[in-house]
Structures are given as structure tokens and as C-alpha cells.
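Lab channel / #folding
Pinned by the channel admin:
"Please post every new chain as: sequence first, then the C-alpha cells as a reply. Keep commentary short and put observations after the output so the thread stays searchable."

First post following the new format, from NK:
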Amino acid sequence: MIKASEPMHILIAPDSFKDALSAREAAEAIRRGLARALPDAELTACPLGDGGEGTLEAVLAATRAERRECRVHDALGRPRQAGWGWIGESRTAIVELAEASGLQHLAREERDATRASTFGVGELILEALDEGAEHLVLTLGGSATNDGGTGMMTALGMRFLDADDQPLPPGGGALDRLHRIDDTQLDPRLAGLTMEAAVDVDNPLCGARGASAIFGPQKGADAGTIHHLDHGLARLADCMAERLERDPRNDPGAGAAGGMGYAALAFCGARLRPGIELVMETVGFDSLLQLADLVITGEGQLDGQSLAGKTPIGVSRRACRDGIPTVALVGRLGEGWQAVHEEGMTAAFALADGPLSLDDALSRCTELLTDRAESVARLFTARPA
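Reply from TO:
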């Protein structure tokens, strides 16, 4: 308990709330709520990301990276402006998959994992190579895709061909027809590029815990489509296995972002790292944590799968190590969420103040987040009369 004479130091470290708030916007909503109850408290905002949407923004805010913009194609092949980060002194580029091929750029009725492509991610990498990048941080998460990274690699010069030696159409739906991979036109600059890929899940590429089965439904795939997509990713891995010394399809994180984790491993020789650890390291989270009496984190949903590497769990593990209580404010508490207490989470609260439709919950997210933050602050400073 904080002594009454001492100001409370609270570290605000949320991820984004998908389809509602960016991590920065969520942090500001929480800050307003805390300030209502604790006007004298020291409030430090540290928006985070675990590899998905908003990770680039969090890294740019905490480093000397420059934000660059370029024209790319979204997951359905439509032109859009996308950002990436550049640290000139270390020749390092930061590419966020969701900037180009993110689910947030598609309306719900447009989501189609059979057609969605990561081609735009490859276009961002080409921009980085043109700038002279020697190291690339690729953040994976929030994708609309299930193409095993074939779109990205197509943009970089690789060809994925059917039995008639014709290029496959974009998207994961065509991968079951893959017959041959041609890398004779692959951009030669990739050979001199080292890559780290930030992932927020530990799923393998295929099977019951694979990319298609676990994440396909949120990308518009029904049961039959999931089976078809999973078969296509397996076919891709079979074709690549002939070229590789070791088959990485079952590596933790290979199923991230519709198989982009696998692509980073198999095509680019990347090192996969938990996204939240990479981001916390980059933003100097540990030094901020040393001053904190309480940490408030959050994201759209907290459930049993969050333990695989989502932001609130990464935050709570780090804070628990230093004996600092952590509270998560989330849009929804899903199945198995109680397991978060075993990972150092002090408490978790859903935002809804009554029965709400999804649309109402999204539209009121700022208001609800601010109100819950105020309630948490009042609880942590409560004293007997």
C-alpha cells in the first residue's frame, strides 16, 4: 500500500484494442481515468505492441527511428499508404505486417483468407532494401492473411508455380495446387539482410493448433475452408522441405500471421522472438518499471491463448519479477482467462458495464476504458475509515 504522503507512480502499458483504439489512444484513455481519482499521481504512458497492429507506432515513439511512407497493396490487392521505420545509424528497418496486410484495413464482409495476400509486406521490404537496410525487424500479428508468406516472397521475386508452370493466384486458397518454387529471380539483396521476426503466438504452421485452424475463423474461414487452407500450408512446407536442411513447420511461432512466421524462418533465415519482449527491450520498459507502484495494461481480449505471448502477459511477468502489482483492463475475458493469475497478473477486468453488442462495445471503448481505470485507481488507494 502506498503511503498517503507519497505520490503514486503508475505505469500505463496497454496494447491496442483491435477495431477500437490504438495502443497510444488506449493509454490516453486509461491516463484520464486514473487522473480523475489520483490527480497528484505520477502517470507514465508506455504504449506497447506484441507484433500486431500498433507495434510500429510503439517502437517509433520510443526510439530515434524515422517514419517512412510508401505506396503498397493491401491484403486484397488495393493500393494503400503504409508506414515503416528506419534507423539510419544501424541500417535497421522496422516493418509491421499489419501496416500493409492487416485485418483492420478490411471490412468484416471483405475478410477472405483464401484470397488475402502478404504481397504488400514484400513491397515494404523492397523499400527498406532500396534504402540500404542490412537488418530488418519484421513484426507479425494482426494479419488478414493465410498464405504462408508466399505473397511477400512473390513481391521479392520468388515464383510459386502449379503443375503447368503457371504462377498461382494470390492467397492461401491456391497453395494446395503448388507444384514448384522458382527462386531464380529472387532479389539478391536478401542474402545480405539479417532478420528478426516478432511473433505474438507460439502456434505451429499446420494441424489442430496451426495457423488455419486457430486464426482462420477471424479471417472469414469456415470449417471447410480451414481444412483447405491447412492442406495448402502443408503443401507449401512439403515443397520447401526439399530445399531446407531442417523443416521449421512445427517450430513455435511458425503459424503466426497465417504462416508468416514459417516464411520468416524458411525463406529468410530469420530469428523468431516473442514480440512483446522485443518491444519492451526497445522502449526501455525495465527502466520505467523501476519507478512504478502499479502497472495498468490491457488489450481487446484476454484468454488462455494470451499466455503464448500477448502484451498483458509479457507485462505482468516482468512486473511480477519486481513485485509490482499489475491490472489488465480488457474488452473481453475469454475462455481460460483465469490462468493469467499464474503469470503474475494481480487482477483483470472486462470493460462492459452491462449487456452490449459488439458495435456498442467498440464505439464506447474509450469511455469504458476511462471509467474502469478510475475504478481501479480508487480501489488501490482505498483505506479503512
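NK: The chain has two domains: 9-47+293-380, 55-276.
TO: also worth noting, The longest strand covers residues 79-87.
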